[in-house]
Known about the structure:
- By secondary structure, the chain is mainly α.
- Helix content is 56%, strand content 0%.
- Keywords: Ribonucleoprotein, Ribosomal protein.
Amino acid sequence: MGKCRGLHTAGKIHGHQRDRKCQDQQYKKAHLCTALKANPFGGASHAKGIEKAPLFKRERCMYKADAEFLINNSQESSKQPVALLLLEPKEVELH
């Protein structure tokens, strides 16, 4: 087949391309935002959605727990279980 020729050919080719685009599944998925509507996080990363979630009582205690203890004993086996840290919150000054 040769090239299309004529006065109104550009509009015709452009129209055909537009029609073919609408039938392309990958194009639809990328441009129609249906994946974002179906996604509970709305396209945001998973961590971002969890970060915005409300803190539960155990998590609040965990944040108030002594961070140095967790950092120092993260690689070696700790004598004090983490569950005790969760149940006993420690007040920490925030700067």
